[in-house]
Amino acid sequence: MSDYAQPLPRGEDMHGEFYQFCKQHELRFQRCQDCGTWRHMPRESCAACGSFNWSWERSSGKGQVFSWTVMHRALHPGFTPDIPYATVIIELAEGVRMVSRVLDLDPEQLHVGLPVAVVFDDVTPEVTLPKFRPLP
Prior knowledge:
The chain has one helix spanning 13-23; strands spanning 28-32, 38-39, 54-58, 62-71, 85-92, 97-100, 115-122, 128-134. With 136 residues, it is mainly β.
């Protein structure tokens, strides 16, 4: 049992597949085999063309900060030690956007367009979370 106090993803359905790849330290997203659209969150059909023909493709893991908000009050007791922290939207090179955290950076140093790369945080023996670090 882990002492990790923050909420963990349930990893059900297709979300489970996403987190299985993370456990292997691979960032993968669904990609439509008909129109080429990348997507996140996982789902059965492509929002762009309606196709059910897709595969899990490996991401470069590189992107940039698209937006963020700084939390000054914990929405869950597990986040209290991290106050203040930033919840960040990362836009990856493939065009998908995901919510995550940027490590090793004070929230005041965040800016739109900050280049980042994925790192994997093995928060429990069962769960690995994708997070990001600034690129030089």
